[in-house]
Amino acid sequence: MCKPNEIKHVCIVGAGPAGLLAAILLLRRNEHQVKYRVTLVDPGVDYGKLGEDGLRRNRSWMIGLSAHGLSAIRAVPGLYEDYIHGLGVDIRYATIGITKALKLTYDAKDFLPEDSSFTVDRNYICAALSRYLNEKFEEDDAFTSHYNTRALYVDGERRCVVARPTDEDDMCVHYDILLGCDGIRSIVRNAFMNNHRDFEFELKGTFSYGKSVHVPLPDGIEDGNFMFINNALPGWGSFILQETGKMLNVALGTTLDKECPGELKSDDPKVVSEYFKKHFHAFDIDAEEAGKQWVNQGWNSISQVHCNFYHSKKLNALLLGDAAHATSPQIGQGMNTALADAAVLNALLDENKDNWEDVLPKFSEERVKEGNALTDLSFYTFSLSPALQVKLMFGQMLRRKLHFLLPSVFSSDPMDMVARGGKLSEAYHRMSQLGIIQKVRLTNDNIIRDHFERSVGMTRGDDKRGFTKRVIFYGLPVVCAVAFGLMRRDL
């Protein structure tokens, strides 16, 4: 570990939201004295140097930027006002479609602070952060960026990251501090695995697949209307977020244990279009455009990550963002939590006077509970069972209504705390007190395990026994054993 007053070389692997904001915050700490030299390594392009057309061609997925992420961004003077504001669409309404006939719309002011949440393309946020970084620090000797350069592995003994530029020989980036912001397939996290026997890490899917389409905002849909529609297509749920330019991002997904309708597997846009016209009920969608986009993309799947700690003193390293806690998008807090990771790191450096010996373990202490709460709230507050999901949605509606009528008697819904900037770990605690986490975990895990066992042939669905036969086959031995036991007791 280097001494507190030495200039530290920080290698940041990954130029996503967490990596870019971490770079900005570290370089800003050089204002009065150079403390850090920052090297950024990323396999992609620098979105900050793309024009509007280039960004449009590199469009990613829509996310909600809300209290946690906005607080982190606003900690940098001028970053929100000059670079972020206006990139997305403010969330003004939320529509929850429980059934085809029952859709409820809420005013966002009922559960969101003013100017606290908007929808935006993830890569537009990365572009804005990168533009700030380039404009403020590109000519600074303390900052170096290596885009189009894939990090291959961490050499912990030599304290370097071995990386491969697109058109050059492999390079070695030496570091004093290493920040792994390199996403779900993190090579920095791999180094944790190789260097710590007590490091526990889980990477698993969310038992779902789907596609998304970008369609014009239809008549009758208000600007800034976020929607979650249950059974938007038969057996398919939909998250719908507005984009700039009067467009909607319609994400549709279903679970792996449901057979995909043949029409949705077709490579004929007319077949898909007719299916949308017949079944999509959230609003009057441009079915022809949806069909064209649907057949020109592959299936998407999402994974989640759990880790039991985010720091390594042996490697002088931290995990941030998706490398630490990749999540499903149901509660819309993945990028917000990644940005908050960078802000918490900066706050810990303030509190501990840039003493990384103390900062590393304190980062895990602060963030592991938040990261694991994030992934579990995202996956275990939405049920894979349609019947249970409807019950959960009615329960949330009831809690909100009771709190609105009698706020001194009934607490707000725990998930509304998150939207207002409350701690994820506190929301997890309260959802657990309500028994929701436990109930959904049991249901979801059983559904996933049953599907796995059937799909690999461990169990079969060909048991033809009727009810009476099953009772005799399984119940008779139990009855006999109990009767024998009672007879022995009487003797």
Structure commentary:
- The chain is of the alpha/beta class and 491 residues long.
- Helix content is 42%, strand content 22%.
- The protein contains 17 helices and 20 strands.
- The chain has helices at residues 17-28, 52-57, 67-74, 79-84, 122-137, 187-195, 262-265, 269-279, 287-295, 322-325, 334-351, 356-380, 386-405, 414-419, 424-433, 436-455, 467-490, and strands spanning 8-13, 36-41, 62-65, 89-90, 93-97, 103-107, 118-121, 143-146, 149-155, 160-165, 171-174, 177-180, 201-205, 208-216, 225-233, 236-243, 247-255, 303-307, 311-312, 317-319.
- A 6-stranded mixed sheet has the order 8-2-1-12-20-19, with helices on both faces.
- Helix 3 crosses helix 11 (334-351), helix 11 (334-351) packs antiparallel against helix 12 and helix 12 (356-380) crosses helix 16 (436-455).
- The radius of gyration is 25 Å and the shape is globular.
What oligomeric state do these chains adopt? single chain
Shape: globular
- Fraction of residues in β-strands: 15-25%
Number of β-strand runs: 20
Q: Looking across the biggest beta sheet, what order are the strands in? A: 8-2-1-12-20-19
**Which structural class matches the secondary elements?**
alpha/beta
- From the N-terminal CA to the C-terminal CA, the straight-line distance is 74 Å
Features:
491 residues; alpha/beta; six-stranded mixed β-sheet; 17 helices; 20 strands; 42% helix; 22% strand
Please outline the helices and strands.
Elements: E1 8-13, H1 17-28, E2 36-41, H2 52-57, E3 62-65, H3 67-74, H4 79-84, E4 89-90, E5 93-97, E6 103-107, E7 118-121, H5 122-137, E8 143-146, E9 149-155, E10 160-165, E11 171-174, E12 177-180, H6 187-195, E13 201-205, E14 208-216, E15 225-233, E16 236-243, E17 247-255, H7 262-265, H8 269-279, H9 287-295, E18 303-307, E19 311-312, E20 317-319, H10 322-325, H11 334-351, H12 356-380, H13 386-405, H14 414-419, H15 424-433, H16 436-455, H17 467-490
Parallel strand pairs: 1-2, 1-12, 2-8, 5-15, 12-20
Antiparallel strand pairs: 3-7, 4-7, 5-6, 9-10, 10-11, 13-18, 14-17, 15-16, 16-17, 19-20
Helix pairs in contact: 1-5, 1-11, 3-11, 8-9, 11-12, 12-15, 12-16
